[in-house]
Amino acid sequence: MKRLISEELVQDRLRNVVDPELGLDLVELGLIYDIRIHDEGRRVAVTFSLTSPMCPAGDQIHAQVESEVLSIEGVETVDARLTFEPMWNPDMMSPAAKLFFGR
């Protein structure tokens, strides 16, 4: 039976993408801004950000976002869009991430 592709499933897969400088995943850091499922899951659009426009790992993170989403059975294309609107800030982190950083 084919698994239903949901925002939650995509978000869970994106937990495998870790910011190498901070050591936490993009979901916990609040860097995943939007997930949209199209064409019964064959196309997935992910809008994400980085902690800084000057992030040296930006290309690597972008490639990992695409790779992780494409690894979901049934997904054929990924539109991974990097944005800085709004600019990321530490208040966007999950409660667990804030605790990790002592905020």
UniProtKB/TrEMBL annotation:
<dbReference type="InterPro" id="IPR052339">
    <property type="entry name" value="Fe-S_Maturation_MIP18"/>
</dbReference>
<dbReference type="InterPro" id="IPR034904">
    <property type="entry name" value="FSCA_dom_sf"/>
</dbReference>
<dbReference type="InterPro" id="IPR002744">
    <property type="entry name" value="MIP18-like"/>
</dbReference>
<protein>
    <recommendedName>
        <fullName>MIP18 family-like domain-containing protein</fullName>
    </recommendedName>
</protein>
<dbReference type="Pfam" id="PF01883">
    <property type="entry name" value="FeS_assembly_P"/>
</dbReference>
<feature type="domain" description="MIP18 family-like">
    <location>
        <begin position="8"/>
        <end position="79"/>
    </location>
</feature>
